[in-house]
Design a protein that fits this description.
binds iron/sulfur cluster; Alpha-Beta Plaits; 2 helices; about 60 residues; alpha+beta; two-stranded antiparallel sheet; iron-sulfur; globular; metal-binding; Ferredoxin
């Protein structure tokens, strides 16, 4: 599975970074950056916590 982040939807809340910093980071503007495709329970938690539904897991 691949971690997808829709930066047009991201509102820079940082919840994903706080939840799984090995996979998510923020750029200088505060928007999400995906660092790796590591799939963990914390990645799924981050997807659930994102207030703008900007994150998802997909086959490609
Ligand atoms: S939790 Fe969602 S809105 Fe917040 S920084 Fe991550 S992707 Fe953006």
């Amino acid at each position: 599975m691949k971690v997808h982040a829709d930066r047009d939807r991201c509102v820079g809340s940082a919840l994903c970074v706080l939840t799984e910093p090995a996979v998510f980071d923020q750029d200088d503007g505060g928007l999400v950056v995906v660092l790796s495709d590591e799939e963990s329970g914390r990645v799924r938690d981050a997807i659930d916590l994102c207030p703008s539904q900007a994150l998802r897991l997909a086959a490609e």
